[in-house]
Amino acid sequence: MKQRSIGNVQVGAVGLGGMPMSIEGRPEIDRSVRTVHAALDAGVTLFDTADAYHIHADEVGHNETLIAQALASWGGDTSGVLIATKGGHLRPGDGSWTVDGSPAHLREAVEGSLKRLGVDAIGLYQFHRPDPRIPYEDSVGTVRDLLDEGKIRLAGISNANTEQIRQAQEILGGRLASVQNQFSPAFRSSEPELRLCDELGIAFLPYSPLGGISRAGALGDRFAEFARVAATHGVSPQRVALAWMLAKSPRVVPIPGASRPESIIDSVQASELTLTDAEQAQLDAA
Ligand SMILES: NC(=O)c1ccc[n+]([C@@H]2O[C@H](COP(=O)([O-])OP(=O)(O)OC[C@H]3O[C@@H](n4cnc5c(N)ncnc54)[C@H](OP(=O)(O)O)[C@@H]3O)[C@@H](O)[C@H]2O)c1
Known about the structure:
With about 290 residues, the chain is an alpha/beta fold.
């Protein structure tokens, strides 16, 4: 797979999002492990997870544990793998998602993630979502402190607007490695953040790049132009969507979710799909 950078780390241009393997609708563990192994076989070296990817209150970090175990059981060399996790979201167990961006919570969360991932330092730690009750500088300032203390190797933010990206970059002293925002054919309002990351040299990780777990399969039905370009190339509309966003900037590293090996095997091939300028323009306009 073609490579891209997140901070000083090289990763395959398409990562794997772990959420579908751990939240509502998740499959049996065996299928998830096969999915992670298929991703590794296909050259995926970026795995996106979060302590909040779980269902029940007593299984915080379900997805972090799953990914750590699947990496360990793969059998190959995983030294080049970057695990990107997140803190600042909670799931109390009633189906809801809440936020806590307080320094105390983030410090506690990082300790839990370190244990579950079985590492001395987290590869990429992303502040999951701004907490309206906590000044942004306090949350991101805690991430900076964790970076200075060596608990995390790279720092990122998620669900951030352009102002917050600039603010985080300043708080982190120019060390903001990544921004993870929603971006897909269906959700394009993060284009200004993508552009800013391109300008500042920060990795931009589009999340829910296929429209989200329940809508990803119907991408081609919902967006006829993506289906048309896909037919021209003899590939899936999902692969075209990923190639389209990869072409927007060398900083883009999409993290499509998957809970089946076939999904991620198809998605990684977007890295080799080149669209014409005319196709790119048609998809931009679609
Ligand atoms: N930072 C945040 O706030 C935030 C929010 C949401 C998500 N995320 C991250 O972003 C990742 C991706 O988002 P997402 O999982 O919500 O949505 P998504 O990537 O848009 O869609 C995921 C679904 O797409 C299907 N899929 C994947 N590749 C496919 C292909 N080539 N052809 C057909 N179907 C394909 C998978 O189906 P199968 O399950 O059948 O394999 C999967 O369930 C998450 O896993 C998570 O890591 C972050």
